[in-house]
Design a protein that fits this description.
Elements: H1 2-10, H2 13-21, H3 24-32, H4 38-50, E1 54-59, H5 67-84, E2 93-97, H6 108-125, E3 129-131, H7 139-152, E4 158-161, H8 167-174, E5 180-184, H9 199-215, E6 219-223, H10 227-239, E7 248-252, H11 257-265, E8 270-276, H12 280-290, H13 294-302
Parallel strand pairs: 1-2, 1-8, 2-3, 4-5, 5-6, 6-7, 7-8
The protein binds dihydroflavine-adenine dinucleotide.
Length: about 300
């Protein structure tokens, strides 16, 4: 019930405007987001890197509905990448990009060209790009664009979602030398025809995918807060003789920070997904919907405790 309310609130422009104008909004942003713009995001990233964590910046953008919006998103990423080196954040920082924000639903070729421009800027900055996974209707197109980008920028990363039935096959395709693959459960509501629905089936699929990635030749990026799956990933890394620089863990900013610190202290690479931007409201509501217990945490941050 609370989850449905939060997901409905995530889509409400009116509530978003109200929250954005409230002074408490700033505290909420601080808990789960890097900030509202690059100037706020860079120091947040700096503090995490100083704590021994790696980071991936994600510009929060609504799905792009015009070619102009797509250009603005591309340029924002280029501006961010242009500042990473000066801020001393490479190679610890990379960027995550949603192709839909670069115009994928308007024109795939346009999205590819914008993504290529972002990859070029990343290469100049000395870092890499990971393409976020969105709903299943975009998976084929995203993996096709990834394959094109990897011809000149082989370090470009993919995200695969364990809840999709196709993902074991995609893992096999991508478990090749130099291939960076983030494995997550999947955040989008998907129909039964394409996706496992129960938590158990999704977890089992996650483990099957993890086995393929860890036993393959690529670079697995294990993106979960789930203690059981983290323990299994640690076990598989040992079993397949992977050294600490041959895989990494990833978690969202503000979620299970003690576990992030524990894994990093144990010698693991831990990358924090660091969203920033004006479009923070929908992101925040989706995180709360995933774990309604966070409503209490957010409540405390809103009143500054
Ligand atoms: P889940 O939410 O099922 O939680 C499992 C367990 O983890 C809980 O039972 C609890 O024990 C623990 N836990 C979770 N949250 C906690 C909290 N706040 N405090 C304490 N314990 C907590 N999705 C997508 O579709 N496309 C993408 O590109 C990405 N990218 C991405 C990057 C990164 C770095 C991460 C971490 C995640 C994504 N995701 C994503 C989101 C992902 O698909 C998924 O929706 C969330 O990570 C939540 O799933 P978990 O694996 O964390 O488990």
């Amino acid at each position: 019930m609370l989850r449905s309310l939060l997901l409905a609130a995530a889509g409400s422009d009116r509530l978003g405007r109200l929250a954005g104008s409230a002074p408490a909004g700033r505290n909420a942003v601080r808990k789960f987001l890097a900030g509202r713009d690059i100037d706020e995001a860079l120091p947040t990233g700096r503090a995490l890197v100083d704590d021994g964590l790696a980071i991936t910046f994600d510009l929060l953008a609504v799905e792009t509905r015009s070619a102009e919006q797509a250009v603005a998103v591309r340029d924002e990423y280029r501006a961010l990448l242009g500042r990473l080196k000066g801020a001393g954040l490479v190679p610890a920082a990379e960027v995550s990009v949603k192709l839909s924000a670069l115009g994928q639903r308007l024109d795939e070729k346009l999205a590819y060209e914008h993504a290529l421009a972002v990859c070029v800027a990343a290469a100049e900055a000395g870092t890499t790009v990971t393409l976020d996974a969105e709903d299943h209707t975009l998976t084929d197109s995203t993996l096709e664009i990834l394959a094109e980008l990897r011809k000149d920028h082989p370090g470009t990363g993919a995200v695969l979602q364990a809840h999709l039935r196709r993902t074991e096959g995609d893992c096999r395709e991508l478990a090749t030398a130099g291939s960076r693959v983030r494995l997550c459960k999947g955040a989008y509501a998907e129909p039964e025809s394409v996706a496992f629905q129960s938590a158990l089936d999704i977890d089992k699929s996650f483990v099957r995918c993890l086995n393929i990635l860890m036993s393959g030749e690529g670079y697995p990026m294990v993106a979960t807060h789930d203690p059981r799956l983290i323990a299994i990933a640690e076990d598989r890394a040992r079993w397949f003789d992977r050294t600490a620089d041959e895989y990494e863990f990833q978690m969202l900013h503000g979620v299970r920070t003690e576990e992030q610190a524990r894994l990093a202290a144990g010698g693991n690479v831990v990358r924090v997904y660091l969203p920033y931007g004006e479009q923070w409201y929908g992101y925040l509501m989706r995180r709360l919907a995933e774990r309604p217990a966070n409503v209490a945490v957010l409540g405390r941050s809103l009143i500054g405790r």
